[in-house]
Amino acid sequence: MNEKELALIQNGKLNRWTVENSKEAYGIPNWGKGFFTVSDRGEVVATPIRGREHQSISLMDIISGVKERGLEMPVLLRIENMLDSQLSILNESFNDAIRQFNYRGQYRGVYPIKVNQQQQVIEEITRFGASYHHGLEAGSKAELIIAISMIRDPEACIICNGYKDEKFIDLALYAIKLGFKCFIVVEMPCELELVLRRGRKLGITPRLGVRLKISHKAGGHWAESGGDRSLFGLNTTEIIALVDMLKQEGMLECLQLLHYHLGSQIPNIRDIRAGVAEACRYYTELVLEGAPMGYLDLGGGLAVDYDGSQTNFRCSRNYSVNEYCADIIEIVMANLDEKELPHPTIITESGRATVAHYSVLLFNILDVSRFDALSIPEKLPEGSHEMMRNLLDVYTSVNTKNIQEYYNDALYYKDEVQRLFRHGEISLRERSQCETIFWNIISKIAREVKKIKQVPVELEGIDIALADIYYCNFSIFQSLPDSWAIDQLFPIMPVHRLNECPTRRAILADITCDSDGKIDRFIDLHDVRSTLPLHEVKPGEEYFMGVFLVGAYQETLGDLHNLLGDTNIVSVRMNEDGSFDFVRELEGDSIADVLTYVEYDTKVLLTQFRQAAENAVREGKITGAERHKIMHAYESGLRGYTYYEK
């Protein structure tokens, strides 16, 4: 639904607003992928298992349950069955492609722990993923410790990436000795000698992989992961040197896996196909060199369609999961069959696509700064300043044909008013009246702009200047760091009142008191919106919204800007009868928690404040009874939630 259609409905010139209009306005059928939709009651509902629409959960019912349990907004909602569904979709899609093409190898997925390291996530992936032998990728010692503790399936792979010291390598070697299918991937030329030396020292034969510095570069946010100048991996000369060293040591049989990583969010299937084809050439050459190989690790890259446009836009993807899997199987087969070589076990490290849908950030609106231009008189009082008369003339004369000229005039007069005020030539009240007229001019120009086909460049996005500001109870820096850091787009919408027409245009501001703590770019099917359609916030009623597809990276990357800590977290699981249970609740950080993160000793703070309060008693500023109340408030504050509490 475009802006003009929405405006017509809002003005009553088209049919009344329906739930279907809301679905279209917020694009939920496109990015929801069958996991999210809108109910007849006008509430967002989650269907954790696609195809089972009768088993859905209203997000408003979850919010009610959260409030009954005494938890405040914001809340990070995790829907466990949705994680299970994504694992099933990925593995079954590869298995279907294997059967379709008569591929003679297997598929083994691994989840990169760095995408979301939370214990609940890894626990569910290893529990449910065991039926598919789904493994884990570890890029650090801490992640490897998680992997070898959580995996119970001997067929699941553990891929060790990243920079490795002796302790990292020793842990991986011990994992091999314990029977884990653990691969030590050589990412730097110096690592091989260290791995071989530690293997000899411990008497353990390593299971090796090598990371290829692939020459093809994909588009998107993370294009630098690939290409000749990527940070990790070996070039062709270094790979040959690795093979020669292994031959010299009589350990070429240890080399079993080739790995590359093209990027985290690859929107174009052509880039994926090109990367697989290039990697297959290296794989076949390594087999011909005498390495046993057997595993081809294609890294990450399976994208999430955040805006639902199904295009090669950086926040989307122009392919389905089925197409992704089929293309990979087809290309690997074609290249290996050409050399009459056995088909390898294919590994992918899909993290973003596995966990993105699983988490939703729910929050409430605290306040609204509305743009409603004040009325202006038809005639100005006697003695009004010349600039005020000039601005009123512009207001009365604006029409479709002269909006560019009169927009320029309005800006000029506004600047003049500010200059005159600085020099004391007009009063505060006069400046206020001039600004009222100016914003009425901008509102009128914005209405006229909608009537013309070719909008002047200067007037594009004029609606942003007129947008309301909805103040949201969360921190962008803590819960949506990618929105701030790299302009990542996430689907954002109200989770109720979707059978009502949204009559306001808004941008979102968080509670960090930071100019960057805002969201003014929103998903759209054909473009990027500068405002979001929202409902009037009714007095005495709460207005709830959600940010969707936030399961990947956001929890891990969040910081403590303004000392706003982790939010409350609830996990729900859908039952077979359509009911749902709250299976886990985690209280968010208290103020005391976040203070300890930045090296404060809360006991010392309490002692120092108590002394300050006692000094105030001695000086007669407060009574002893007042000191007791003040200390109670201070201690209660330390225990409190870092976000807005009622």
Q: Describe it for me?
A:
With 646 residues, the chain is of the alpha/beta class. It contains 23 helices and 25 strands. Strands 4, 15, 16, 17, 18, 19, 22, 23, 24 and 25 form a ten-stranded mixed sheet that branches. It has an eight-stranded parallel beta barrel with strand order 5-6-7-8-9-10-12-14, surrounded by seven helices. It has a three-stranded antiparallel sheet with strand order 1-2-3. Helix 5 runs parallel beside helix 12 (321-338) and helix 11 packs parallel to helix 12. The chain starts with a helix and ends in a 7-residue tail after the last helix. The model has no long low-confidence stretch (mean pLDDT 92).
The whole-number mean of residue pLDDT values reads 92
Uncertain spans, ≥5 residues at pLDDT below 50?
none
Range of strand content? 15-25%
Helix content: 40-55%
Largest sheet: 10 strands, mixed
Q: So how many helices? A: 23
Q: Please report the total strand number as a whole number.
A: 25
Structure class = alpha/beta
Q: Roughly how many Å is the radius of gyration? A: 30 Å
Straight-line distance between termini: 37 Å
Net shape: globular
List the helices and strands and how they pair.
Blueprint: H1 3-10, H2 19-26, H3 28-31, E1 36-38, E2 44-46, E3 57-58, H4 59-68, E4 75-79, H5 80-101, E5 107-112, H6 119-129, E6 135-138, H7 141-150, E7 157-160, H8 166-177, E8 181-186, H9 191-202, E9 208-211, H10 236-248, E10 255-259, E11 265-266, H11 269-288, E12 295-297, E13 301-302, H12 321-338, E14 345-348, H13 352-355, E15 359-369, H14 386-397, H15 403-422, H16 428-449, H17 462-465, E16 468-472, H18 476-479, H19 481-485, E17 492-494, E18 504-509, E19 518-519, E20 522-523, E21 528-529, E22 532-534, E23 544-547, H20 554-557, E24 568-574, E25 580-586, H21 591-597, H22 602-618, H23 624-639
Parallel strand pairs: 4-24, 5-6, 5-14, 6-7, 7-8, 8-9, 9-10, 10-12, 11-13, 12-14, 16-18
Antiparallel strand pairs: 1-2, 2-3, 4-15, 15-16, 15-23, 17-23, 18-19, 18-22, 20-21, 24-25
Helix pairs in contact: 5-6, 5-12, 7-8, 8-9, 11-12, 14-15, 14-16, 15-16, 22-23
